[in-house]
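User: Fold this; tokens only.

Assistant: Input:
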Amino acid sequence: MKKLLALVLALVFVLSAAPAFAATEIEFVFWMSEQQDEIFEMVDAYNNSQSDVHVTANLISSGYWDKMGVAVPAGEGTDVLCVNALHMVDYIKNGYLLDISDLFESGAIDLGNFAESTYMTSTVGGKTWGIPKDYDTIAIVYNKAIFDEAGVAYPENNWTWDEFVATCQAITDATGLYAVAANGSMQTFGYLTFAAGGKDFNEDGTCALNSEEVIGAYQALADLIHVYKVAPTIEELNETDTATMLLSDMLAMCFTGSWNVNYYSEQLGENFGVVTLPIYNNTEANIVHSVAFSGNAKTKNPEAVKDFLTYLATYDAQAITASTVIPAFNGLVDVWASNYDVDLTGFTTPVPNGTAVPLPCAPQNAAEIYTAMGNMIGDCLQFNNVAQTVAEYTAKIDELLK
């Protein structure tokens, strides 16, 4: 009897000393160092909300895409990753990403919580491959001090292209300074393609940029440099970049993305102003770029990954990052804007009002084609031979699309 009692007590001791059920471990990687505090907070909130899954987050601030290009195809390095629009299509085509369509079909995630422009690039082939994380839009930031010096009224939202040009001329005439800068950024100036009534790609998969309407839009942009003389040349911008010119009182305005709001607001202080993009051809347009949370197709723990992704699609999770970026979840753009004591309508309205177009993403060689589009704009501005430049780049892009 004593032996039996001792055996029972020993068994109880062993069972009580046994470790608790181990959580499934998954890894999540990202590259956005300026968001690391908020992202770590978001991951901690998920880990503390349940005990079945534990996520370890790692920042890869240098060489992210080179490392992902090796690790993800091999099924190593991460279970969950951030994917931008320019890599999304190729990652899907190559089978790198986990199909998470069932999360939306089951109702675990309501796609209606996100604007269509934020998830179009991660919805391919009738399936969904990513959760919209955040988005950025384009507007004009201006230095109020230069407007005051010129005696020119601050620009108002929804101004036309003609009003924009007239304002630029008034500033340059009064101060001798450049009014605005234009460079070869597709994300910044690509909105002109759509405002002009054009598009990036035809139904047959060829490049659609070589149209009279698109050529006219980029000629209007080039005229800021070569006709009106209100913008620095590309050579001048290569010597002194746009941000330096704006913050050194050498420039009154610049086209920029919402990711720069915190920087410019801190640097310009009370002279920080924001206005919508000038409306070209009576058509409002903007370029929106959205980053997505995606799962590795070769993860060994797909259900744990989907559980984490479901959390990342919630209002509470995305609200954590609203201090640094515009979360993709509907309504959180106002939370982001509330961080600043200035009207940010230029950045906040394009997605909710449906005038934003997703960043141009080709069905193949997306990153290379996007770079070519930016180079096209840069060459239009530098050489002022817009029709020939657009025709040449259209041919180059068509080769990349074959």
